């Protein structure tokens, strides 16, 4: 009987996308996917090492899986693979360890039940994913990071930046559009440093090509402020398909902290960027990431962050309390902001963002937006708008709508991070 597997993914879009390539490779190896981890012969955890909380989740999950089914084999991939301390800690519970870059030779690491059908693959991004959604999906354009922000494990866990040839990306996106996909999000750790050197194409050049492929929603994540060129910003206003949402991590409003984080920009530079982007997209939904309690962050530094968030009126801020990540530069600094202060700063920022976002959303009541329908419950549909906002829509009588397609709706009410409306 075929052996079964289950994948649990923690963390970012890149991990979710990697899981689709992992599933595809496991299927090729003759494994059979099951939806319940307790029935699986193998559970693969695609891990995230960006915060201590994500790491702690892995320990909890492994204990649960082993308790429910002690015979399940556990494999770990993703950001925690490079951590020797974790390997030692989990040596009795985890059998297989492989980096995501090793997917192309997975048959040498895991049991393979289909050896005659395995083709060797040089770069794991060449693997055709087993896409989870039939409507909206991620397409990675590269992997790794060269930036070495002082708090971040990614350059150690994923290695230096490598990018896919533009032609491969264009072919993948075109195939998805031919299958009826409505929304494509191109992803990498740092999308806007993309380069196809052979064809002399930068990120804007790639966006121009993708923009011309059809009528669909095109998104990108994650961008680095230092790589937001004027050429890219000017293109935002010209694009037909880019949805007007930008996630641009600022991390702090204090220049002293930005320097210690090795972010290579100042708060003033970031403000100027946002002003330029808003000239192209006045209706932009702007989201960001902020770390509170980074080593050396004083009340004054935090006040600078508060001021920046107030001034720029973000629609969402993903706030994280700083936790040292072994192997990073920041882990060598004194973690000198007390846990209680970190918590208070996080709460203060969150409260401010919730109130600000509510104002932004309420200003949208009465507007007409396009909605991609993703789920139906009775007479209601759930989906998201052409600005990437979650929305619940009701239907006028006797009209039918198809899941996975886009329709116009009018916004009737709003919460901080979601909308409600009626389909037109
Ligand atoms: S840009 Fe900085 S935070 Fe983002 S992945 Fe690279 S090192 Fe990490």
> What's the main sheet like?
5 strands, parallel
Which hetero ligands occur in this complex? iron/sulfur cluster
Percentage of residues assigned to helices = 25-40%
Instruction: Estimate the mean pLDDT confidence.
Output: 95
Total DSSP E strands: 20
For the largest sheet, list the strands in their spatial order.
2-1-3-4-5
Distance between the termini: 51 Å
The geometry reads as globular
Q: Architecture of the largest domain, according to CATH?
A: 2-Layer Sandwich
**Total domain modules:** 4
Rg over C-alpha atoms, rounded to the nearest angstrom: 22 Å
CATH domain class of the largest domain: Alpha Beta
The structure class reads alpha/beta
Strand content: 15-25%
CATH-derived topology of the largest domain: Transcription Regulator spoIIAA
Low-pLDDT windows of residues: none
Total DSSP helices: 11
Structure description:
Strand 1, helix 1 and strand 2 form a beta-alpha-beta unit. The mean pLDDT is 95. 31% of the residues lie in helices and 23% in strands. The radius of gyration is 22 Å and the shape is globular. The chain is an alpha/beta fold. The strands form six sheets. It has a five-stranded parallel beta sheet, with helices on both faces. The site of iron/sulfur cluster has 10 residues, from helix 4.
